Amino acid sequence: MKKTKYMTSSGLAFSEGYDMKRLAKKSLKGWHLQKFGFLGYTLERGEPMAVEYELDYNEQPDADYFQLFQDAGWEHICSGGAMHIFRAPEGTVKIYSRKADKRDVYRQEQKKFKSYAVFCLIIFTVLAAFLWAVNTFYPDLTTLTVLATVLLLVWTFPTVFSTFPYIGYTYKVYRLNK
């Protein structure tokens, strides 16, 4: 029987709660979060447990940061960049029980992604305009058209992976402000 398996993420910027609930359901079946994977999570086989998962963001965590969560009953499971996932028995008080605290965390992430998103969108727009200009005014320059197309396609990835999280965090802040 396999000891590990992979579970895709729905995108933490958009559906953090949904992913954490999915991880909890997997734990009920004996599949527990081991670490972040590429666009998802690596799960390991174990005994079924009724647990909850919570995600927190901290750019520079120290020992006191992790001790605070441990004292509140949350076990640190894994980290990926500024994201840290904790696990606790079902019914443990949530890490952020106040809307204002959660909103501050999302605002911080929103600000972080904003500059990346704006930069990527500007470059993407310039590349798209360049491709359009080459196709319109110099249709015989196929090499330049191919090069511009490849650059635009390659640049699509950083644009998507910076803009979508920015939109997701902006939406979360908006919902928490209501």
UniProtKB/TrEMBL annotation:
Keywords: Membrane, Transmembrane, Transmembrane helix. The chain crosses the membrane at residues 116-134, 146-169. This is Uncharacterized protein DUF2812.
